[in-house]
């Protein structure tokens, strides 16, 4: 085989390789089909040339004609390919050129006036093919030039509409130039014997593949598989060995005197090694020059997909995406927007803290309308060119400009826009097509991840929100308070509680619907006032808690006063009927409360203070204490107002549980006496007296069977029994002016060691009045006869009190109580009835 | 990125859609843009001291409240704040103050602030106008770098002076003559130089007030025939070979056809754009002279650039992002608080007075600019455009605008009569058109009966006398003669007692300004036959 044949063989192999690999590409694309046709003509050309030169069956002249057919049909193939490449589909013109070149071939076949049959001479083992061209050969060139001119015309017409087309056409134009040069050189005697035309054809095909690659018609990873690499390596291995094989055999037998079978083994091993080395080299070359980026992106994308779908927070999803983008595309970052419950698309993430985080887009925003229309990633510039962009506000334009957005992408879930991604280049670099494709590929998985995260966050928030008012609920309030208390232990944390005044009356007057509206208005007011500086929660039916981290007590008080003022003026609020006020208490740690629970209880005390001093106001806890300490006549009990109601309620319990009525009176009496003994203010004495009367009022909701059961209660019955505390609080809340007794009532079953109920408060966290009630309540229960026990003696009862001091009871209270009895400053009262469950 | 940079990079379709894509909008989409930009403007305007002074404590939040709470305004409502040019009182920082004469106003000038956003919108829309003027259909235009433009516009600080500045921000078009040079030249010299340069470089676009472009075009043949030093013949040595060839062919044709040289003989315009009033009178003549039918655009000092015709030249479409448009139906114009309709409520065949709220931080809100438009179609036209289509009718009847140059009001006529001390007892003035479709002001006057014995007053005396005072009171009126060479005043003297007869015969009084033609005819009839005889 001579050099000419080898070149033809190499060309043929190259073409075949391209052809087989492109068969794997998407043939639905016209351009891929026309490229395959082009390659087929090239294959015929090289194949014919090779078989002619190797004088294959049936004859060299047959293969010459095959080669000429391939060559002459090439221009028509080029025309179709260019048409598809630039998007001009003029089928008539294509057909015309096919007919012209087919006619040329037919005419030449019969006349040989343009391309004559070669003269074949044999010189020893070598065969020489010589073409004796006449000037008619230039007729072929003339027609080829006409096609080239037609292609140029087509391209120029397209360029007027789409100037960018020239950039993508550059490799094709260069390839065509090389093809023409090769054909021209092959007619020059200097290159006789060297198939310059075939070489230029291969180079031309390479340029075409590059153009298709740049146009994103295919991905290199899809075409160049491991099998293909191996085949190429094997082919080059055979080629090398077939050329050096004979010399190698001669060298081995002369130098090393090896036998033919030994040489065969060595050549075989050499062949394998050579193929492996070539394979590795080729693989490495392709990885470095073509595949590295794609593979890196693919692997990063795979990691991202597995990681992001497990994330449960929207911010984490965007953060992970940003990391992926920054690692894969240099100098790029992500800004994430997410659909909120208010149907606004708000900015949820940006790596740049200077970005406008309050930016939000409603469903009628031009960008949202645009993304709903295009439904895929789009260049920002394309959005700017739309008429929709005319509706963008000037300040939004400035914000967008400051973000240097290059691409904008929608995130859809079930056809609903759930988020938007801005991809911005920090160095304002021009986006590349491959970047665009990569970003496009991450959208689907990001949509899924965002959807999951949104659902989780929604569920998370729903569990923490009060659905009527849109603020946090009681449960989350306590969690938050605990968390913020610990966080702000060393600085300041203010707590405010606002309790609506006479809300029950309001509901009765204007109805539940109006009442709900007022709750929403107050919640909104508090939320607006606090903004993102604090947390608002609905902690009871008509009570809101406001946690204000970093606030001092005065600032908190001022804030609440402003809210109250606005509520009274109704300015800028959703209209509601009637007049609404609230009583608010404010306390702050660490100066006025040593623990989270103390903070809460002090604040509740402050609220009670306002309630008792005429409602409709805001009081700081310290003020309240000071007032109580200095003014004896400060407290005007509301008891008288509700005495008849309380009496009726306790009478109702009496019907179910005969003991309770007198027990409540005893407890009230003992509690007041103990408070006096402990030098509490008269106000607190009265308060604890009233709390004593009401502390078991919740038993009205407990079944008679449990109240009067002679034996021990089982666990279920005990759980129901424990409910009487919460029930009592619920009843008292319906006596608005008596709410100040709630802290004492709710804590009279708390144990000093923290094992009581319902809140498992501990030590000083239990309100003092609650601790007093606990001692005297137990004492009265012990010295009374019950259905399940006999009455103890006072001595025994005091002993138990003493034993349980520090465990069940506050030791100070116990000490004072025992001292009082021992010093006969307390008259013991005995109940006539004999049943109570404690 | 400038328009000219995009020319080399983007497809025609893409570029056309970017600038002219608003024509693809449906009425609903158009209104969405309008409503959205109104919210932005409402927020800016309501918070500004200017807005607060008009709102008097009210704060509109919705479009409905906007129309209910904000009264219709005129320049008097803004004069105090705008004339002092205090930027801090405005909805947004102005980059530029544009001025115009305020005929009939308490001050000689009106000024209007232009913000950055307004100028950007103006710029984009100017390009759209030229694309539409040079195109033959959708996605078609013919604009290239280094095209040349002959123009007949007043320089800055007049609104028309914005055009060269904004146009050059987008593309390197050569103005003939260059804007800076033109600023210091007389109107005539400017035209001569413009044509001279056009002979060298060709003329691609022609832009100006309809009346002025007509006048300049008419003067072209005079320039080519004149033997004066300033004639175009002197510049023949520097004419481009292409135009020179056209010149010789045209000369031969002109001799053959026995006519003067007209611009189309030498120049092949890509597009012609006209602004101002009374353009309808000049369009056909301009087409005959230039071979291109002009595209009319609608712009003003207060409204900015608000509308344009398309390649079809069959009516105007408003830009969605320049102003918020409301329309007062003609029959409600004289109501105390006239009702308005929006773009999606207008009816074909109805004439409306336009009410504008300038977007992007503009000062004017629900502003009665004083222009009348007729809606000619609300259905989708043959080109697939479904936005309502309008034609410019004229100024409001209380104002007589002649060729876009002067705006005469009742006030200015009364002042002229007062200053001239002419014994005119009653008058009406109406804008009319002569046999050549040219506008003029026709005054029907009745003299005081007592003065007839003591004063010699003829039609000519009245006309000369009033003209002197109109010129004294209004500089633009003077320009009608000096620039356009037209004398727009025609006087008809009515017999004494005509108005008295009219008042006896007809219960409703006749308006001084632009009464209906029927009323004019009735008035004339009252002069012919004494009322008592009827």
UniProtKB/TrEMBL annotation, chain A:
Residues 660-782 form the HD domain. This is Diguanylate cyclase (GGDEF)-like protein/putative nucleotidyltransferase with HDIG domain. PROSITE patterns: GGDEF, HD, HD_GYP. The keyword Transferase applies. One of its GO terms (molecular function) is transferase activity. It comes from the Bacteria. Residues 491-623 form the GGDEF domain. The lineage of its organism: Bacteria, Bacillati, Bacillota, Erysipelotrichia, Erysipelotrichales. The keyword Transmembrane helix applies. Residues 638-833 form the HD-GYP domain. The chain crosses the membrane at residues 6-24, 31-50, 62-83, 95-115, 135-155, 167-185, 191-213, 229-251, 263-282. Keywords: Membrane, Transferase, Transmembrane, Transmembrane helix. NCBIfam families: GGDEF (TIGR00254), HDIG (TIGR00277).
From TrEMBL, chain B:
Pfam families: GH3_M. Transmembrane segments: none annotated. It comes from the Bacteria. Coiled coil: none annotated. Gene3D superfamilies: N-terminal domain of ligase-like (3.40.50.12780). GO terms for molecular function: acid-amino acid ligase activity. Residues 318-381 form the GH3 middle domain. This is GH3 middle domain-containing protein. The lineage of its organism: Bacteria, Bacillati, Bacillota, Erysipelotrichia, Erysipelotrichales.
